[in-house]
Structure formats: C-alpha cells, structure tokens
Predict the 3D structure of the following.
Amino acid sequence: MQVLERLPRETGRDYALRTIKDNIITLRLEPGSQISENELAAEMNLSRTPVREALIELSKVKIIEIYPQRKSVVSLIDHELVEEAKFMRSVMGCAVVQLDCEMAAPQDIQRLRDNLQLQKFYLNSYYPENLLKLDNEFHGILFDIARKSQIYTLLQSISIHFDRVRSMALATVKNQKIVEDHENLIRCIEERDAQGARDLMEKHLNRYKIDAAEIRAAYPQYFK
C-alpha cells in the first residue's frame, strides 16, 4: 500500500478514507484481497478507530465487505455497480459541460488546456497513475467552471467502482482517445457548442466498454 501525505488539519478518519480509496482505485489494494485494521493503522500511523470508521464508510458504497470479528475484504468488481456509477457520472457530466459552454471564461479554458498539456506529457511517458489523477482533475475543473464543485465531491464516493475500471483501462491499454476526447471537449466549450460537448462527454464516459474484454483478460481474478 502507498501511504499518502497527510494534509494540514485533515482528520484521522478523512486521511484514512482518502488513503484507502486511493489504494483501492490504483489496485494496490487488489479486488478480493483481505485487509487488516491493525496493519492499515500501523502503516498510516493512526489508531484503529479512524481506520475502522473509514472502512465502515467504504462499506456503505459496497467497495469494502466487513465481516465482524473476522476480516474486511476489498470487494470484487461488480459490473452492475460500475454501470450505476457510470450512469451517475454521465448524467451529471453531460449536464455540467452544457453549463460550461455558457459559463466558461478565458481563464477557465486555460486551466483546462494546462491540464491537457500535462496529460499529453504523461501519455507519451506512460505513467497511468498520473494520467488517472489528471483525468480526475480535468473533470473536477469542468464541475468547478459550472459552479458545481460540491456535486463533484459527492460523486466521488460512488465513482470509486467506475474509477477502478478506469484505472485498469489506463494501465492495460495506452489509449490516446481519452486525451483526444479532452482536447475536443475543450474546443466544444470554447466554441459554445453545448450539444457537441454533451455528445462527446457521453461517448467519453462509455469508452471503458471498448476495452472491457481486454481488461477482463488481463485481470480475470478481479471480477465477480
């Protein structure tokens, strides 16, 4: 497991939650693997209580399975939960990019372009984890432009199911299309093409299906 740096004024629970989620998404905590409260607490230099609270929170969105007095397990990937998470992201994402076409200022476009340049750099260097982080930041900027950043924060809890598949797609298939989608989306927003932006976002969030067979072939043990 990779232990993240604790943020200033971050509570133990929030720190544990953020660290465990990151390791689940990046597959350092693999689907089906057993995890120990004691070991996690020791690695993060925390007591068991904030770790237990974080695991309970993650169990509410079915990414962790808790067996009282026995063990906790990272859930295997459930296609239905992935689809549910993708549906929510698609509904909100499509609505947000339409708002962006009305609300984006030149400095907002520049923020997106700066992020895109880094995506291109890491695509060429091929660092999947950095690409995933930048992809999340890109979508966060889209929600921020539309003044809907709190909604994006709320989406992150259920998106973990979808994010694991996105992580595997980036690690399994060096797909230029993801970055190309972002570039075309910036162009649509800049040109105030709301319908084009909506159509592209829907296509973008469906791309993981294209790689589904290859992902399953690479990680058959991770799926239900």
Q: What stands out?
A: Residues 84 and 158 are 9 Å apart (CA to CA).
